[in-house]
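Board notes (copied after class):
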Amino acid sequence: MRLGNTCLALGLWLCFNVILPLEFVRAASILAVFPYRLPQLFQVVRPLMKALTHRGHKITMITPLGMFEDIDGVRHIRVPMLNTHMNDMIESDKFQDFFSDKWSEGSLVSTVFHNISYAVLSNNEVQMMLQDRSQHFDMVLLEAGHMDALYGLAEFYNATLMGLCSVRINWNLDYLAGNPAPSILEPISPMGFSRENSFLSRLHNWIYISEERMLEYLVIRPSQQRILKKFFGYSAQQMDELRSRISFFLINNHFSMGRVRANVPNIIEIAGIHLSEPPAPCNKDLQRFLDDADDGVIYISMGNELIVKYLPESLQSTLLHSFSQLRQRVVWKTGDTTTFNQTGNIYRISQAPQRTILSHPNVRLFITNGGQLSLIEAIDSGVPMLGLPFFFDQFSNMHRMQLAGTAKVLDLKSLSSDLLTNTILELIDNPKYSQSAKVRARQFRDRPTRPLDTAVWWTEYALRHPDVSHTRLNQDEIPLMRYYRMDSLLSMGLRFGIATISVIWIISWSSCKIIKRIRQAPKKKEIVLVHINTPLNINPIT
C-alpha cells in the first residue's frame, strides 16, 4: 500500500513538473512582418519561424513575393508591390546617387520606408485579414525601425509588439527599446561617419547623429504618421505610444564581435541564429579544388546584392591582377552564371556554399564587403578577413573587426593591385591574425544556450509577460536631471565655479594694486626732480 502511494506521488510529481511547463507556454498566434527584399534577412528569420512553428505557435508571415520557399505550417501572405518598389528603386536615377553622399542616401531611404509601409497595408490580402473580425493575433513580430505605420497592427489586434534587427543596432533602435544611452557611436548610416577618437571627430559624430535625428523627426516619422492615420485612423500621440510599447528586440549581434555596448534587459543578442540550419555542401569539383590547395585558399564574396557585373571594371581588373600573382588558390563567388568556372588559380562560382568553404581547413583568408552574416560566419569559422566595404553597415562592421585584430580594411577608392597583394600576404603570413581569429571564434561559440534557443525563449517570455516595462528605461519616469546626474554635476560645477571666480578675483585685485603702485612711483619722483631743477627767480640788487 505504501509502495503504491509512493509510486502515485512520484507519478503526480513528474506530471506536474513535466506537463505544467508545457501548458504554461500556450500556443499563440503570431503575425510576422518582414518586408525587406534581402536574402540575409530571411536567413535570420527562417530558423526562428520554423522553431516557433514546431513549438505549436501559429505563424502568419507577410513578405515580398518569392523571397524564399514556403515554411510548412506557416501561412504566407506575399506582397508583389514590395518587389515592384525594389525594382523601381534600383532602376531610378536616385539609386545612381545612393553612394554619393549621406543626404542622397537619406532621401532615398525615407522614400523606401514610406513605400514599404504603404505596400504592406494596402495589399488586398492584408486588407481582407484586417476586415476579418474572427482574426486575432497575440504578437506582432517585425523588422523594427523607421516603419512606424506597421506598429498599428499591434494596436489593431491588441497584441504584444516585438522587434527583430537582422543587421546592427543604432541610436533609433536604442530609443525604441527604452535604452536612450547618450551614444555617438551608433549611427543609422555610417556614410561619412568618423571612426577616430579625437575631440573633433566626436564633435563631428555628434553633429552627424543630430542630423540623422532631424531626418527621422522631420521626414521619416511624419510620412509614417500619414500612413498610420490613413489605414488605422491613429493620431501622432498614439504612434508615440506604440513606439514605447515594443517589448523585446532580437538583435543579430554578439558582444564577442567587436565593441562592447550597454544593453537594457529587453535587447537580446542572437547573432549566429542562422547557423542552426545545416550548411550547403560543396560539389565534387569545388571540394577537390579546396582539398588540393597546398598553399591555402582565399575565398572572396562581395555579398548577395553586389555581383561581379555591377562592380566597376577597374575594380575587377585590380582584383584579377592581384589574384594572379598569388600562390594561393582563390574561390570567387561571382553571382554570374556566364563566367568560366576555373582559370589558373581562380575558381569562379555563381552561388557558393559559403559556410562550408569558410570551415574548410585550407582556407586562409576571407575577402568580403563586410555584410553582417558574412562577418558572423567568418568569426564562427575563425578565418581572418580583408574588408572591402561598399555602403551602409559594412564600414562599421569591418572597422570593429580591424580593432579586434582579425581583419584589415582597404578603401576601394584608393585600391591598387600592389596594395591589395601586399595586404593579402600580410594577413596570410602574419600568424597574429589567424590566432586572433581563432580566439574570437571560441569566444563567439561559448554561450549558455544556442542563439536559436535564446530567441525562442525570449519570444515566449514576451508572450507570457505582455507588460515588459520592467525591462526598459522609461524616460518619463526618470527626470533628465537625474538620468544624466546633472544635480551632482551642477553642485560640483557651482563649487568649482565659486572657487575659480574667487581665485580670479583675488588675482585681479592683487594685480590692480601692484600695477597702481608701480604707476604711482614714477610720478612722485618726477615731481621731486622738477622741484629741484627749477631755477630760482632771484632779482639782482640794484
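Comment from the instructor: The longest strand covers residues 58-64. The chain is about 50% helix and 10% strand.
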